[in-house]
Amino acid sequence: MSTSGGILSLVSDETLRNDVERVAAAVGVRVVHAAEPSSRKVWAAASAVVLDVETVCRSAELGLNRRDRVFLICRSEPADAQWEAAISVGVQRVFTLPSQEAALVTELAEGMDAPRADRPGGVLAVIGGRGGAGASVFATALALAARDALLVDVDPWGGGIDLALGSEGDAGLRWPDLALQGGRVGYSALREALPARRGITVLSAGRTWREVDEGALRSVVDAGCRGGATVICDVPRRATPAAEAALDAADLVVLVTTADVRSCAATAALGQWLAATNPNAGLVVRGPAPGGLTSADVSNIVGLPLLAAMRPQPRLAAALEHGGLSLGRRTPLSSAARRVLAVLRTQPRATVASGSS
């Protein structure tokens, strides 16, 4: 019996065993059922142990060592003798099912991401100052420049950010396929369900229009943060609930614009919306500048600090049409992306509130 990385279920009640299976499926972790652990090593190796009132007494009789993440599930309040047994084996929480099933899902999901909790990931929200400014391309560049990235498409009108990465044909779920109603989800399970390309996990809107659910978005962003990934949200220029949730969760909002007068005017207007939602915002200015506006000029007009300026990326359109974006070490996009990521590392981490289940 190997329980390493999985849940050890010492549950005698058949109905409760089915509940454990359903919870484990929601978290995305395997579960090993047993009448009792075959060894102390098996007891210690599991990511969590779930007991019922009968097996908690049996475990106490075996004299098993106290350990973290031991949970008791039951249909009603335990009796005094069962409470004593639970304390002796180190039970941390008692869950009455089915009413507290969502809380058990949350508890087990947190444990799956616990090894990486010492370095929670940052959140970037990328938005275009005007249509065609290149926000989706820059969001993709940020994901490529980050070591471990979750690229989240918040724009159901954009045709799918997987097109920018060239992963539109890859197997995996898109937003229309993802059944989340808020609450806590484990990042390892989410990552396995989504397409991945060049080290980037991608949640795309796809080609079928469907509004991105605000609660589901918060759950996805929260999972990525707890899993240690850098979460990059490609945000539409519309004040949808999901867009505002992404902006609210961001440690840094990146406003991408071009160096011309009309773009400056549009970006300045959008900046007022951003300032009301998240003041931690800055500009990325993309060349060329047909009228001679400098990046500093654009920053002054818009009223936001300059994060990075970049000259045009050679052969960008061809790359996007044939295989998706790739970054050379010294390209304008990669240099600008690294500068923005350096700023992100100096930002305090925001707390993401998951939607209720």
Written overview of the protein:
The structure is a single chain. The protein is built from 14 helices and 13 strands. It is an alpha/beta fold. The protein folds into 2 domains: 7-116, 3-Layer(aba) Sandwich (Rossmann fold), CATH 3.40.50.2300; 123-345, Rossmann fold. It has an 8-stranded mixed beta sheet, with helices on both faces. Strands 2-1-3-4-5 form a 5-stranded parallel beta sheet.
Overall shape? elongated
Please identify, by name, the CATH architecture of the largest domain: 3-Layer(aba) Sandwich
Binned strand content: 15-25%
- Percentage of residues in helical conformation: 25-40%
Radius of gyration: 24 Å
Largest sheet features: 8 strands, mixed
The CATH homologous superfamily of the largest domain is called P-loop containing nucleotide triphosphate hydrolases
Low confidence ranges? none
Give the N-terminus to C-terminus distance in angstroms: 33 Å
The overall average pLDDT, rounded, is 84
Which class of secondary structure composition applies to the elements? Answer: alpha/beta
CATH topology of the largest domain: Rossmann fold
- As laid out across the biggest beta sheet, the strand order is 8-9-7-10-6-11-12-13
Secondary-structure element string:
EHEHEHEHEHEHEHHEEHEHEHEHEHH
Number of helices: 14
Total domains: 2
How many runs of DSSP E, i.e. beta strands? 13
- CATH top level assignment of the largest domain: Alpha Beta
SSE blueprint:
Blueprint: E1 7-10, H1 14-27, E2 31-33, H2 40-45, E3 48-51, H3 53-62, E4 70-74, H4 80-89, E5 91-96, H5 101-113, E6 123-128, H6 135-145, E7 149-153, H7 162-165, H8 187-193, E8 196-197, E9 200-203, H9 214-226, E10 230-235, H10 241-249, E11 252-258, H11 261-277, E12 281-286, H12 295-302, E13 306-310, H13 316-321, H14 332-345
Parallel strand pairs: 1-2, 1-3, 3-4, 4-5, 6-10, 6-11, 7-9, 7-10, 11-12, 12-13
Antiparallel strand pairs: 8-9
Helix pairs in contact: 1-5, 3-4, 6-14, 9-10
